[in-house]
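Protocol step 4 of 6: record predicted structures for both targets in the notebook before any analysis. Target 1:
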Amino acid sequence: MRPIGRSGAAKTFFAGSLVEGCRPGTEYEMPTRILLEGRPGVGKTTAIRRLASLLHGRDIVGFTTEEIRQGGSRVGFALETTAGHRVVLAHVDLPGPPKVGRYGVDLGVMDRVAVPALMAASADPVPGRLVLIDELGRMELAAASFRAAVRSVFEAGIDVVATVHAHSDPFTDALKQRAGIEVIVVTQANRHALPENLAAQLEYR
């Protein structure tokens, strides 16, 4: 069964639907654009990592984030690309600015690691490519270049799955309201089945 989501527009477009206004006799398949919304710790990153491991037939670009733990305590966050490059994004020992909670954030990481891959994917939407973004959160969105790259990805004809924080934010609130966006709320009840359900939807796109 397909996960239940909500679209941000009165007119909902799902994968495989046709765009109104196309020239007669032509068809255009809308890209899949999914936001996995959830509160911290609910399992968004675990779900998107599991999804990536299940999609053997897709060319996947993007990144995930994970906690850095020391002595049982969380001391920061690392960004890891789908190509395997891992770098510290935020840490209690980083001075900032900016600071998000007690973590200083290295915005240069977004410029050096995350943004180039997203901009390249949106500039050349290769058939079969899927962009994964984990996550659209306060740390990552502090970089203006990253916000611009996210806009480009969601405007390009490319499939994208991104995790997003649940709290209100002007950038992510606007993204959730865009036509063609499906928002799926990640919960403890659906987080285990969600990757398999999404993989079935995305594997042969």
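Target 2:
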Amino acid sequence: MITLRRGAAIAGATSLLAALVGCSVAANTPAPRPTPKHTSAPVAAVPLPVAVSIALPAQPPAPAVSPACAGNQPGVKHIIVSISQQHLYACDGQALFTDGPVTTGASAIANVDDSTPIGTFHILDKAQNTVLSGGDVNGQWNDPVQYWMPFTVGGCGFHDASWQNFPLGSPLYTTQGSHCCVHVGLDVVSTMFYWAQVDTLVTVES
């Protein structure tokens, strides 16, 4: 009987010791530390280059070649007068700058030669608001003009003619034409005056 009680006491003490040891071990065991989490700061998005389309200005179309100017050299200003057509063509290279009907010199007057000379010339001078004076066996004249561009040393040139009482381009030029000059409409001669320079090429054709 004593032996049983002693054994039970020993067993109980052993259990208590195991419990105490177990608590001591649990208490002294360090708690697991959490693994630090490294968080990266957000990186700002870098904008990608954007392709921009730039519209280039359209190239102007090449000027059309005029039949009247087809034989002209590129870049050369050239005034062509056709006596048979009673017409003037101002060419800029092979393009027509302006044109219009004209009245050339009176070529059928018996006692004086007022015909416009045929050949190649150059503009010798330019003047505005002047008076053209002269005379022959048939009388004197003092004609006020707004634009004057002589092309011969004898005084033949381009000018307006407000006193002319028949249409430009008319066949009446042979007896009622100029004293060798080329009468040009005011709109055409004014445009031509500012376009042409002294030494601009002039050709008078039959």
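Step 5 preliminary note on target 2. The CA atoms of residues 160 and 186 lie 5 Å apart. The chain has a mean pLDDT of 83.
Proceed to step 6 after PI sign-off.
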